[in-house]
Amino acid sequence: MCKAMNEKLAFLRDKYGCSAEKIVSSGDGCELELADGKRVPLLPWRVERRFVELKKIVDAKTLEDVSTFRFASFSAGNDPVKAAVRELDLAAYLANSPINRIFAVRNGDAACNILARFQNGMSASIECGSKLPTGSEPLDRHEIIARRGVASDRAVDTQVPQSSIYEWTTEGTKTFTDVDTELFGLPNDEIWIVRAAFAVLMKPELAAEWNNAAVAMKKYVEAIVGSAAQNQPVEL
Fold first, then answer.
1. Which fold, 44-177+189-235?
2. Which of 87, 120, 155, 230 gives a 20 to 30 Å CA spacing to 22?
């Protein structure tokens, strides 16, 4: 997996004149290994286009007085706690505020529901599950609710991602979605990992920011497990 992504990262480095770094695997995902041997955790959801657009909407105050982030993420067998941590980091990124309280309820490895409170007064409601049928594509939805206005990363009234091209053939339905012409050929999840690595190369100050976010994400795991076990909120 890393070989194909590093080939695409090398293409971007050569095209835009960035220093030579490489993507490496880690226990929690992927990291960017710098020339001095240090590593930066990659947070690909922070550069994914749909979330970048939501961030612009929040920062530009297109939505007046954001109050709640309502997120959901469902998969076939993935760890719901790990998924919840990703969603919490995304919410903190969009809210531009650290999380100071988490209340979690778990159903083993099947589901994890969370209520979170941010330092700036915003809140988040997150649902994560792992019991979609085997082979199903992951489903997620991200809504932002404000005093005036609502934003979502999905088309109105849809519950599943939409593809750009559909083919109905005798072999079944095939779909295609091109999200990045420079990185054509990579699966979408790998595209955003490469874009995350490239973002750090283009904006080195992200390294410290993402390292801090990775530390916070480890605290989220402890808070989720502790809150679910004690059936009470955990202060961060």
1. Dihydrodipicolinate Reductase; domain 2 (3.30.360)
2. 87
What is the average pLDDT value for the chain, to the nearest integer?
91
CB 22 within 8 A of CB 32: yes
Q: What is the pLDDT of residue 180?
A: 81
Pairwise CA distance, residues 147 & 95, whole Å: 15
| pLDDT, tens digit (0-9, with 9 covering 90-100), for 31-65 | 999 888 899 999 999 999 999 999 999 999 999 99
Encode 158-200 in three state secondary structure. CCCCCCCEEEEECCEEEEECCCCCCCCCCCHHHHHHHHHHHHH
Task: Please tell me the distance from the alpha carbon of residue 95 to that of residue 120, in angstroms, as a whole number.
Answer: 8
**What is residue 62's DSSP assignment?**
S
> How far is Cα 145 from Cα 63, in angstroms, rounded to an integer?
8
Q: How is the chain split into domains, by residue range? A: 44-177+189-235
CA 96/CA 15 separation, integer angstroms: 32
Taking the C-alpha atoms of residue 160 and residue 154, their distance in angstroms, rounded to an integer, is 8
